[in-house]
Amino acid sequence: MPSRGATDKSTGPASPRVRVRRRPARASYDLDKVHEILDESLMCHVGFVVDDQPYVLPTLHVRVGDSLLIHGSRRNRMFNLITDGAPVCVEATVLDGLAMGRSVLQNSVNYRSVVVLGTGTAIEDPEAKLERMLALVEKCIPGRLPDLRPLTDAELGSALLVSIPLDECSVKVRTGDGDDAAADRALPVWAGELPLRVTPGEPVPDEHVPAGTAVPEYLRLWGQGRTGV
Predict the structure, then answer these.
(1) Against a cut of 0.85, is the pTM above it?
(2) Looking at the record, which segments are called Disordered (predicted)?
């Protein structure tokens, strides 16, 4: 039978807050696995609370060392709350496939996910901030930086870059098929997994690109070498 979990028993949760309680056999607290999923996922979701109202917003992210970095405008409410010390929950998921069983409740998805709890700190040092902003671009579109106009001081100053330490985090992974009950396995229904991958389409230039301009090779090759792409 295929494995339906990915428990790493070499380390435990950093705190009770990040202990996985539902299907703990699928959990891991290995920081290497946290890094792997954050590096592969293209977006994360940030949860925060304003006046007792919870919100969840998507944003781009990049991992540098043992810190998760997200960025936005200085006028963004979420980022200002985070830098003021508000606690956050950040989640990132890589979707790996559709797991199909023979009954309604045994249809699921295979995934790898990370949950990070903590508080964020604004990175104000211009050199450190620029380095990490460039790392975010390089993560999303490897090879593009040499084509881009450099950031101006005003542009760099208008952005808010927040660092969240990976001190409290957990991984949860599901793999395998639909996990049918033994009595259902004789039913004449196809069951198994449909793997899913992020694959790029044909690049579409905007109206200001001069005629005859070649599509950059890094776009033609986007995704090659990325795990799960």
Answers:
(1) yes
(2) 1-22
